[in-house]
Amino acid sequence: MNDFILDLKNNGIELNESMIKDFNLFYTNLINKNKTTNLTRIIEKQDVYYYHFYDSLMASLAIDKTKEDIKLLDIGSGPGFPGIPLKIYMKDLNLTIVEATNKKIEFIKDTLKLLGIDDVRCIHLRAEDFKELESFDYITTRAVSTIKEQLEYTIPFLKVGGTLIAMKSTLKANEEIEESKPLLKEIGAIVKKTISYKVLERDYSLVLIEKIKKTSSKYPKPLHKEKK
Ligand code: SAM
Fold first, then answer.
1. pLDDT tens by residue, 171-192
2. Does ligand 1 come within 6 angstroms of the Cβ of 166?
3. Sign of torsion over alpha carbons 57, 47, 204, 75
4. Any idea what the Cα angle at residue 209 is, between residues 204 and 211, rounded to 5°?
5. Whose CA is nearest to atom 27 of ligand 1?
6. Gap from CA of 123 to ligand 1 centroid (Å)
7. 100 C-beta closer than 6 A to ligand 1
């Protein structure tokens, strides 16, 4: 895994021994649990390290690490991407994970316990039903839905000035930015920047969307009406 460590270092992401150990534990747990629970289709060691761990860590390039108590919400984390790699790398990160599938939340909790991490909130819920409005500095989404679809259930949870980090293949990023323009305007957010990078031979982009005003109370539109 020397290339993995070196390639990250070339992007300014330095892993220490303890972090490398944590990634080994995460990898072993993922592969073991994946034998009985469908968590990921990526199972070759090099692919897991690059397409899951390395790619997840690239989201840290969009985070201002000089700030204290950074509140980050990872929506649709699946088996923990990018949330768990970010937490391994940034141990002071104030991380909340919202994931719709219970078996994935259970896997995330199990992995965090294995890593001795006890300060991550893991919530089994669809983001449309989440209630913590205007609360987070960053939200990450990787392979969840199109940018346009996710604006309604991400932007409401950001503080004004906060950033949605939408992780996309570069091809999809450009298309999806275009189609989300009218809703971006309506919801009060702008595409601030895109950061492009390669994972092995594939091209990916972080689309950074900044919230510029408080969100209208009509968002997010809950999927489940409150019982009276
Ligand atoms: N982010 C992970 C990754 O990159 O490997 C998982 C991607 S997986 C294709 C999409 C995940 O998003 C699934 O685990 C699904 O349950 C979750 N999901 C989809 N829509 C969601 C929503 N509205 N709220 C919470 N989770 C959602």
1. 999 999 999 999 999 999 999 9
2. no
3. negative
4. 165
5. 76
6. 13
7. yes
